[in-house]
What we know:
The protein has three helices and no strands. It is mostly helical and 112 residues long. The protein has one domain (31-111). The N and C termini lie far apart (85 Å).
Amino acid sequence: MIDDINEEVDTETTDTNTGAEDTSTPTTPGLGINDLRIFKQIIDICTSRGAFKAEEFTSIGESYDKLASLLGMIDAQAQAEAEAEAEAGEDETADSDTDETASAETEEETEA
């Protein structure tokens, strides 16, 4: 199965007119986190439908575990960043409240 995919990739990189390898700069693939989540769902669906042979279970399971671990790390990092931003926002709000209070106190002292 993987060999079939590799063969397809190899034939796509060969120029059909000259038979020469494509030496131009490859474009960056548009592969993102959501695509990885979709791949994980595809593996779940294929497994539940019995699409894999018994001898493929080990490599598919290892790949699935790596993918799930990576997505878990990404989710944890995103959550930590969101919490840090929330704390920074609270600190800025607290600082601005303190500055406003100090300004009001200074104005009251000046008037007195």
